[in-house]
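name: query_chain
kind: protein
chains: 1
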Amino acid sequence: MSDTEGDRGADLTELLHLTPFAETVGIALDSAEAAEVRGRLAWSPERCTAGGVLHGGALMALADSLGALCAYLNLPCGAQTTTVTSNSVFMRGVRSGDVTGVAHPLHTGRTIIVIHTDLLADNGTLVAQVTQNQAVLTGRA
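structure:
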């Protein structure tokens, strides 16, 4: 996924276009730097499970998308990334409003990038925490 090193000056819309699934799900990107990626997903009935609660898969789509973009922004020149593992801890359900995700790199190594993402409800309460390992793929054409 990468063409250059460090923070990318790419427009947020262009950056989000790199993850078409995120666009399809309805994720909005608010800011993106190597040190932090922020985005959000609005509650809507079609993203819910029983009882009108935002589906865990929708929350994971937000966390994984922001984590992947954070990893992308920390890749060396010419490398790509893919999620290897993702560990989620859900704390509460979301029945309205937006969920905001904030992704930070915990480790940016030569072969693995570790990203931590907090998902927050509109009132600032923690909805979920997700930690991902993203592989750094080099030497691919």
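note: The mean pLDDT is 92.
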